[in-house]
Design brief:
The complex is a heterodimer of chains A (309) and B (592). Chain A has 13 helices and 12 strands. In chain B, the strands form 2 sheets. Chain B has a 5-stranded mixed β-sheet with strand order 2-4-5-7-6, with helices on one face. Classes of the chains: A alpha/beta (309), B alpha+beta (592). The interface between A and B is medium-sized, with 28 and 30 residues. Chain B: InterPro entries: DAHL, HATPase_C_sf, HATPase_dom, His_kinase_dom, HisK_dim/P_dom, HisK_dim/P_sf, Sig_transdc_His_kin-like_C.
């Protein structure tokens, strides 16, 4: 580089086992960012230990270390960094793992469009600019759970088993509200203090994606956990890109996992409430879904709800 | 068997007991006729004996008449004795004692018989000597020298009377009287000379009569002393007692026989009743069986129909499963191929976009140079420095070109793989097939598994290439999945005994003998639920079988697995061609 990069330029790490991908990405971003590339997962882990990055973008399918492993390592080594998956292989398990373990910001399919990729990277860099706040440690004794107990859990699912399982997992620690339609969910959200929502992907044949996008936009402290019996790659990608779901669980969910998920989601809700700017780190690409929400009048209701809260 | 033997033995025993009882009750000495004959014989013997004894006394009293009665009595006695002798053996059969007694009795009868003879002669002797005495006495009585009424006359008369009495009596008590009379006569004889000779003669005759009479009396005594009557009574008594005893015994046996026969009858009755009942039950069972049989036929028909339906369903399901396995394999393959295509497509498209984005900058550079405005030129050079930009453009376009070539090759591989437009009996180079399959599953193996190729020159093999490709893809996929982490897949081809042999060896986890025995069965899988339908290798097996080839597996846990596919170099006739139109169609649908 002939022009010395100013130190303030955001640093990007691209990981892929195909060097031509890395060359292509470098050509796109080298003008605006400080680009580092790692050919393969092992090299990526090495680089992650040595340098700090604002954004880490990894391929999933790599012969040595898969992308999910790279992102999980990145989350531990550099929690500040925003993580993304860039892959042409839509393996459902890899996508779910990248959501739950990698806590990724976006899932980018190959082949990409340069302009969209630029926007996504820019959004990621903006999200990374917000200082990362670690989740509060879980309270050591049960008596201190009282503060968390006020925050209820909303279940949006036609299948009563989800509520039953959740009640069994939580006992009397926390209120569990049940809605079997989006309408009912909105009403409950307006009436009660709810921090976490467990939702199916669709209720009464209606996709919840617009709702989740709208909630992300207007009620960013609400933590969304998707629980589904019919996960597929396309839905999962949409959930993360447009709804920034916190977790994606597949039915049937073990009681311990359910309990653990509620606890960590509640702590996250608490953190987001206390540090509203942190919502910027999990901002979603809500635009496409918001259009749908607007058309269905959902957005208006949620705006009204927001005033309420 | 044992039960039957026991039954036969008990029936035999029952019959033996019955026979014994019958024999016991019907024993020969106990027949009534025999019994009566024996009793009659004994009675006749008694009568004969008594008669003989009576004749002995009577003969004495009839001295004058002939002793014919005695001879009759002796004959009768002899007849009765011989009758007893004929019965002696029968008595012996009754009892040895009785036989002995009878023998003794016969001996005594013989003795009596001889004594009777003796007696008869003595009586005759007595009669003649008495007759002589009476003649002399009558002559004397009318003798002139002896007047009637004289003492001597009276004495002579008296003597005659006394001697007659003596001769008639068996136990005379007038011997002294006779002796006194004789003494008187002898005394008289001395005085009367004329009468002397006659008197002396009378005296001698008297002595002879007395002597004869005494001998006859002795014989009669001996006869009367023979204990025939007593022994006869004893024999009779003992015989009767014995007979009565035997009779009682037989009666007892008879009672036993009656009871036994009754019992047997009862047993037979019971057995008969049981048999009757068994037959009744048998009849009922038979009826029930027949009813059941009829029902069974109906049920069997019903079940057969159900089974046929179930079988049809199963066949349909299996076909669906095979189809879904194909779809699953296809899905997996498509996902892999998509990644393979998306990667070069990704950078090719990105690069082209980047180049297009550079175009305005390049145009601005040209425009600036044409305008001659140095400041503008400077500005344009800063935003797009040609000394860096041009090599980069070259590189980006080169990569894009490479990527497109990659994609083209992949698509060609897919087309080769499916071979939808070829026939079943196409001559096909197996080495090419392996390479095509390797290309398809490269994304699974790339960078992780080393591929070693050891190909021999193979003559083209008649087969359905799309199916054989599926076999290779399946085997290579399995090999790749068996290897956890890094490893090697060695592929070797050769010609052996008119067969083309393809060996695919992996350094994977291997299988135990049990798994090896089942891998070609439908629905057998070692993969986790949902990961495989367990049809992959069964389809492989079927395809190879359809080609009249064979597939073998060698495996060692921890060392790896070798699959060996053998295909005949020559077509096995027309059998395969009939499949030509049917089989590849399936793939045509899914790939198209």
């Amino acid at each position: 580089m002939s022009t010395a990069p100013p130190p303030s330029r955001p640093r990007l790490l691209f990981v892929d086992d195909e060097s031509r991908i890395l060359l292509s990405l470098r050509a796109i971003f080298r003008a605006d960012y400080d680009v580092t590339t790692a050919e393969g997962g092992a090299k990526a882990l090495e680089v992650l230990r040595q340098e700090r990055f604002e954004v880490v973008v990894s391929d999933q399918r790599m012969p040595d270390v898969p992308g999910v492993e790279v992102l999980r390592a990145a989350r531990e080594l550099q929690p500040q960094a925003i993580r993304m998956l860039l892959t042409g292989y839509s393996d459902l398990n890899a996508i779910i793992a990248s959501i739950n373990e990698g806590e990724i910001f976006r899932f980018i399919p190959k082949p990409w469009t340069n302009s969209e990729l630029r926007e996504t990277i820019a959004a990621a860099v903006r999200a990374a600019s917000v200082e990362h706040v670690a989740l509060p440690e879980p309270p050591p004794g049960p008596q201190q759970n009282a503060a968390y107990n006020e925050v209820g859990v909303l279940v949006l699912d036609e299948d009563p088993q989800t509520t039953i399982a959740l009640r069994a997992a939580l006992g009397s620690e926390r209120e569990v509200y049940t809605a079997d339609s989006i309408e009912a969910a909105l009403t409950l959200l307006g009436e009660h203090r709810i921090g976490v929502i467990f939702t199916e992907l669709a209720v009464v044949g209606q996709s919840v994606a617009p709702l989740l996008s709208a909630l992300r936009q207007h009620h960013p402290a609400l933590v969304v956990v998707a629980v589904t019996s019919q996960a597929d790659a396309g839905h999962s990608i949409s959930l993360i890109n447009h709804g920034q779901v916190f977790r994606l669980l597949q039915k049937p969910v073990a009681t311990t996992l359910l309990r653990g998920t509620v606890n960590i989601a509640s702590r996250r809700h608490e953190m987001l409430r206390q540090h509203p700017e942190q919502a910027q780190r999990v901002v979603a690409d809500t635009a496409p879904m918001l259009q749908v929400a607007e058309r269905s009048g959902l957005l208006g209701r949620i705006r009204g709800l927001l005033r309420w809260i | 068997m044992l039960q039957r033997l026991l039954m036969a033995i008990s029936i035999g025993a029952a019959i033996v007991v019955l026979v014994v009882l019958v024999v016991r009750t019907q024993s020969e000495p106990q027949t009534v006729q025999g019994h009566l004959a024996r009793l009659t014989t004994l009675a006749q013997l008694r009568v004969a004996d008594e008669n003989a004894t009576a004749q002995v006394t009577r003969a004495r009293l009839r001295l004058s008449t002939e002793a014919k009665g005695l001879a009759d009595a002796a004959r009768r006695l002899e007849d009765a004795g011989s009758a007893l002798a004929t019965h002696r053996d029968e008595f012996r059969m009754v009892s040895r004692d009785l036989a002995g007694t009878a023998a003794g009795l016969l001996q005594q009868i013989d003795e009596k018989k001889s004594l009777l003879g003796t007696y008869e002669r003595q009586i005759e002797q007595l009669a003649s000597s008495f007759e002589q005495l009476r003649g002399q006495a009558e002559a004397l009585l009318v003798h002139p020298a002896l007047p009637a009424g004289s003492a001597l006359h009276t004495a002579v008369r008296r003597l005659i009377e006394e001697v007659t009495l003596y001769a008639l009596q068996s136990n005379p008590d007038n011997q002294q009287t006779i002796e006194a009379l004789l003494n008187r006569l002898s005394a008289e004889a001395a005085s009367a000379r004329a009468l002397r000779g006659a008197l002396l003669g009378l005296g001698r005759a008297t002595t002879t009569v007395l002597g004869d009479s005494d001998r006859a009396s002795a014989t009669a005594d001996r006869i009367s002393q023979l204990p025939i009557t007593a022994e006869l009574d004893q024999l009779r008594h003992r015989y009767v007692t014995h007979y009565a005893k035997a009779e009682t015994e037989i009666a007892r046996y008879r009672t036993v026989l009656v009871i036994y026969a009754g019992a047997l009858l009862a047993v037979f009755g019971f057995v008969g009743w049981r048999l009757r009942r068994s037959y009744g039950e048998l009849d009922r069972s038979h009826d029930a069986l027949q009813t059941l049989n009829t029902k069974l036929e109906a049920t069997v028909e019903e079940r057969t129909a159900e089974l046929r339906k179930a079988f049809d369903d199963l066949r349909l399901q299996q076909a669906q499963l095979v189809q879904s396995e194909k779809m699953a394999a296809l899905g997996q393959m498509v996902a892999g191929v998509a990644h393979e295509i998306n990667t070069p497509l990704g950078y090719a498209r990105g690069n082209v976009e980047t180049v297009r984005e550079a175009v305005p900058l390049i145009r601005e550079l040209f425009d600036a140079q044409a305008s001659g405005d140095t400041a503008r030129q400077e500005q344009a050079r800063r935003s797009w420095p040609p000394e860096e930009g041009l090599p980069e453009l070259e590189m980006l376009l080169g990569d894009a070109e490479y990527g497109l070539e990659q994609i083209g090759e992949l698509v060609r591989g897919l087309k080769d793989f499916s071979r939808v437009d070829r026939s079943f009996n196409e001559m096909f180079d197996l080495n090419d097939g392996i390479d095509t399959a390797l290309k398809i599953c490269q994304n699974q193996l790339k960078g992780r598994v080393e591929i070693q190729r050891d190909y021999a020159e193979l003559p083209p093999v008649p087969c359905a290439p799309s199916q054989i490709n599926q076999v290779f893809l399946n085997l290579l996929n399995n090999a790749g999945q068996a290897i956890d982490g890094a490893g090697t897949i060695a592929i070797r081809t050769r010609v052996e005994d008119q067969m083309a042999v393809v060996e695919i060896r992996d350094t994977g986890c291997g299988m135990d003998a049990d798994t090896q025995a089942h891998i070609f069965e439908p629905f057998f899988t070692t993969k986790p639920v949902g990961k495989g339908t367990g049809l992959g290798l069964s389809i492989v097996f079927r395809i190879i079988e359809d080609h009249r080839g064979s597939i073998e597996v060698d495996s060692t846990i921890g060392e790896g697995t070798t699959f060996r596919v053998k295909l005949p170099l020559r077509s096995a006739g027309t059998g395969g061609t009939s499949n030509a139109t049917a089989r590849p169609e399936n793939l045509q649908e899914t790939v198209a």
